[in-house]
Amino acid sequence: MDQELRKAREHHVGRIIHMLSHQLKRRGTMPEVEMGLTPMQKHVLTFILFETMERDLYQRDIEEEFRIRRSTASGILQLMEKNGFIYRKSVARDARLKQIIPTEKAEKLRMDILVNIQEMEKKLTGGIPKEDLEVCLRVLRKMICNLSEEEQIK
What we know:
GO terms for molecular function: DNA binding; DNA-binding transcription factor activity. Residues 10-145 form the HTH marR-type domain. Keywords: DNA-binding, Transcription, Transcription regulation. The chain has helices spanning 2-10, 13-27, 39-51, 59-66, 70-82, 104-107, 110-125, 130-147; strands at 86-91, 94-102. By secondary structure, it is mainly alpha-helical. The protein has a single domain, classed as Orthogonal Bundle (Arc Repressor Mutant, subunit A), CATH 1.10.10. It has a two-stranded antiparallel sheet with strand order 1-2. The longest helix is centred in the last third of the chain and has 18 residues, at 130-147. The model has no long low-confidence stretch (mean pLDDT 85).
């Protein structure tokens, strides 16, 4: 029985994902000077910096991307605004809608973040055949779907 428990613990998918997630959080994608951001704020800022290069971004986009509640997203964005990383601008067509815009302070971090992401991806995928990596990504996306109320993710 003891050996079965040990084997189950070693191959527990959630535990392995948690360990990987913890490692990623510790290393992060932000430059060494983190400017007092929480791990979640770092992820959100990275998302904002890269998504705003392609499209307008709003709070609901943050909620959907990170699968968080409106109140959680609102709190994160308020702190990021207070710390000078973003500002929110009213949209002419709907005053209730606020576009999220990175500040110059945040913009200065974009290239460093990109380099850090590329280095982390290289470490994460080192020695893994392309086919195995594709299977891994497909399985992880399916796991997210299994736990999500939504049917698909990108």
